[in-house]
Amino acid sequence: MVIEKLTQIINLSNQLMVAINLVGPDNESTDVLDDLKTIEQARKVAFMALFEGYSLDELQLHLTLLQQAVDLDFQLKDLALQKKGIMAKAVIQQKNNTKATNAYLSK
Questions:
Q1: Residues in Cβ contact with 66 at an 8 Å cutoff, skipping those fewer than 6 apart
Q2: What would the 3-class secondary structure string for 4-22 be?
Q3: What residues does each domain of the chain span?
Q4: How high is the pLDDT of residue 24?
Q5: Could you tell me the pLDDT band of residue 31, with boundaries at 50, 70 and 90?
Q6: Under a CB-based contact definition with an 8 Å cutoff, are residues 28 and 88 in contact?
Q7: Is 95 exposed, middle or buried (0-12, 13-18, 19+ CB in 10 A)?
Q8: Contact yes or no for 73/32 (Cβ under 8 A)
Q9: DSSP 66-85
Q10: Cα angle at 63 between 2 and 61, to 5 degrees?
Q11: How many C-beta neighbours within 10 Å does residue 91 have?
Q12: Do 40 and 72 meet the contact criterion of CB atoms below 8 Å apart?
């Protein structure tokens, strides 16, 4: 059972990584955001079920899978920060474009 739960978490983490990679200034689809929320919630529930349903001793028997889940978690955090930076730059660029357009049109 622990292996199945850890495998589920790993699969959801990979799906979340794919979904995060689809987010960007060129993709304004709300479907992607809905998918992100759904996958993230399922992953959260799976993590909670894992830690509430199994003892530390049971989890220690599967350190390799547990470490893989932790590594994916770090990768997800890094990817999310990268995407946040990209989106922030896109917002700033859009604001600058709007300012330039407004300045041009007001002359």
A1: 6, 59
A2: HHHHHHHHHHHHHHHHHHH
A3: 2-105
A4: 74
A5: confident
A6: no
A7: exposed
A8: no
A9: HHHHHHHHHHHHHHHHHHHH
A10: 60
A11: 11
A12: no
Instruction: Report percent pLDDT > 70 for the chain.
Output: 93
pTM as predicted: 0.80
Residue 7 structure tokens = 């495998």
Backbone angles phi, psi at 27, to 5 degrees: -120, 100
Q: How does pLDDT run across 68-94, given as a tens digit for each residue?
A: 999 999 999 999 999 889 888 888 887
Please give the Cα distance from 24 to 38 (Å, whole number).
Answer: 18
**Which amino acid would we find at residue 36?**
L
Rg value, the chain, Cα: 20
| Spatial separation of the C-alpha atoms in residues 61 and 83, rounded to whole Å | 35
Token pair of 18, please? 């794919």
Q: Which residues pair with 27 in a beta bridge?
A: 24
